[in-house]
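The aim of this short unit is practical: by the end, you should be able to scan a pair of folded records and say something sensible about each. We start with the first protein, listed as its amino acid sequence and then its C-alpha cells.
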Amino acid sequence: MYENTKIRVDFADTSVVITEPYFNFTSIQESMNEILFEEYQFQSALRINAGSLSAHHYFHTNPSELCCMVVDTGFSFTHIAPYCRRRKMKESIRRINVGGKLLTNHLKEIISYRQLHVMDETHVINQVKEDVCYVSQHFYKDMEIAQAKGEENTVMRDYVLPDFSSIKKGFCKPREEMVFSGKYKTGEQILRLANERFAVPEMLFHPSDIGIQEMGIPEAIVHSVESLPEEMQPHFYRNVVLTGGNTLFPGFRERLEAELRALVPAHLPVSVMLPANPVCYAWEGGKLLAHNPDYDEMVVMREDYEENGHCICEEKFDI
C-alpha cells in the first residue's frame, strides 16, 4: 500500500491510539472500528477521549492527586470533564459549543464590517487571532483604553497582512514603529486592531455577548463540580488542568482562575494549571499510556474484533 511506504509502518504489527470526542455517535465509532481493523488491519487499537489522555498525564506527574478537572478548549468546542481515580465522571461532563473556529469566524466578521473584506481568508485571520488576541483581566477598563486616541490607546496594534510574495507570513508591527497619524509610506496592507484583540477571546467566558445562549467556561466548571458529591468538590477546584489551543491566549489562565475564585465558596482553594505545551498535553499522555504496563489490557486486538465485532470495542472503550 502507498500509505505503508510513505510512513514506513507495517500496520499488522502496530498498535494505534486514536482520540475521539466525548459522546461520539455510535455510527461514527463503528465506522472507525472498521477503518482501523478492516481497512488498515492494525494489530490492536485503543479509542479514547483526548481528555482521558490529559488526565492520565496529569495523574502520572501528580501521583498524590486523586481528582482533576480537564478543560479542553479546542477548534470546534470546549469540554469540561472531571476525572476521579483516573476514571471520567460521565454525568458531570459539560460541553460548550464555542471553540477556536467560532472565534476566528467572529474576528473575520468584525474586520470585514469595519475595515477590509476578509471572509474568504480564514487561514490568515486565524493567524491574526493567534498573534494579537489576548484575554482581558479588566474588560471595561480595556474598552476605555481601546477608545482613546493616538498613543494613549495602548491596546491598538497594527498587523501587516501577508502578500505571499515578499511577506510570506503576517506579523504585528512593533509599538515603536506604529504611525498614529497619516499613512504608512510602505505598500504594506495593514489591519488596525483595538478592542477586537480582547473582545474575541471574551466569547470563551461570555458567549452570550454575541447571542450564543451557553455558559462560559468558569460557569460550566462550577456547574460540573456542583453536580458531583460534595466531599469531592474541593479536589476538583484545586486541580483544574487547561488543554487545547485556546488556552494559549495571553492572560487566559489568570482570568479563569480569578473568575473561578469569585464563583467558588471562599473556604475552598482554587488552582488552575497551564502545562508548558497545552496543545500536545494529551498526545504526551498517550505516549505515557502506551508505555503503561496495563496498556495491553486496554486495547482491542484485531483477532478479538474479527471474532466478536463492534461489541468487544463497546466493552473495552469507555467512551
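Turning to the second protein, read its sequence before its C-alpha cells, just as you did above.
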Amino acid sequence: MRLLACQNCGNLLHFENTACEKCGLSLGFLPEAGRLSAFDADGLAMLDGKPKKPCANVAKEACNWFLPEDDAEDYCPACRLNSMVPDLSMPENLPLWRRMEMAKRRLIYTLDRLRLPHEGPELRFSFLADLDGEPPTMTGHDEGHITIALAEADDAEREARRTRLNEPFRTLLGHMRHEVGHWYFLVLVERAGRTDDFRALFGDESQDYAAALQAHYARPPNNDWRGDYISAYAAAHPHEDWAECFAHYLHMVDSLEMATSFGMTINPVLDRDGVLETELDFSPYRAGMEEILNAWTPLTIAMNAMNRCMGTPDLYPFVLSAPVARKLGFIHEVVHHRPDQGQ
C-alpha cells in the first residue's frame, strides 16, 4: 500500500479515509489513479481537477471509491464484482458487510498494482450470512466464484475459528487473498500452460481434492509440514499450497510497499557474527524475487519485535524455508511474465 496524503493540507491519510482529519475536506479513492483525492469546494477531485461521481455503495458507507462523472457504471471496479451481499435490512449484517468490502478493496488495490486481470464475468464474490435452520456458510471458491462467510468479519468469531483450527494467522484480508488465489491458478498456471512447472514445485494437483481435505482435517495437529510448506493447511493439497503461497505473496508486496513509502531502514542483529541491514527504497511491484525476500526477512523481524513490545502476538508467525521461497519465486514469475503481457 502506498503512503497517501491530502492534496490540500498534506496530512497523512489511510486507504479507508472518507474525510481529512486535519482540513475536513471530503476524500475519495480514484481507482484509475490508485490514489486518494481530496475534493475542493466545487466538488472537483484535487488529484486531477475533474468531476467525479461516488460508487453507489458510498451511500451505504461501504465504499470510498469514485468514478469519472461520465462513467456508465454505477459501481466501482471493486463493488461491481459482487454477485451477492447479505440481507442489509438486518442491522447486524451492515457493519460486517462494510468490513468485507474494505478488505476486498485492499485486495483489488494490490491486484491492480500487479496488473492482474480481475474484470469480466468470471471473478465474482458472494458474502453470505448464516440463516436460521440452514447449515453454516462455508468459505470457498468455484471457478472464480468466491464465497466468504459473513461471520468471518466478526473478530470474535474469526478468532474462535482460528483457535479451533489451530491456525497461527487468520484475517479477513487473508481469506480474500487466499480464495482469489485459486482463481489465479486457472489464469496464471492452467490456462498459461505452466502446469508441469507448477507440479515440479507444488505436486500433482489432479489428486482427489475432497479426499485430501478430509484426510487433512482427520489428522491430529503435527509439525510434519514444516520446512516444505508455508502452513499446515498448505500441506493438505497442491491447490491449497498454491493458494496459501499466493496469499502470502500479496501480503509481502503490499507490506513492503507500505514500508518503502515510510522510508524504513532496518538493522536487525541476527547473530554475533554480523548484522543484516536493509534500506527499503524499492518498489516490490518492480523488484526481483530475491530483492523482495532479502527485504522481507528483516522487516518481519522488526514487525514481530514491535508487536512483542506492545504485548501482542507476532504479526508474522511464519518461517520462509528454501522450498517455500522457491514456490513464491514461481508465483512472482507467473505474475510478471504472463502471455497476455507479451512477455
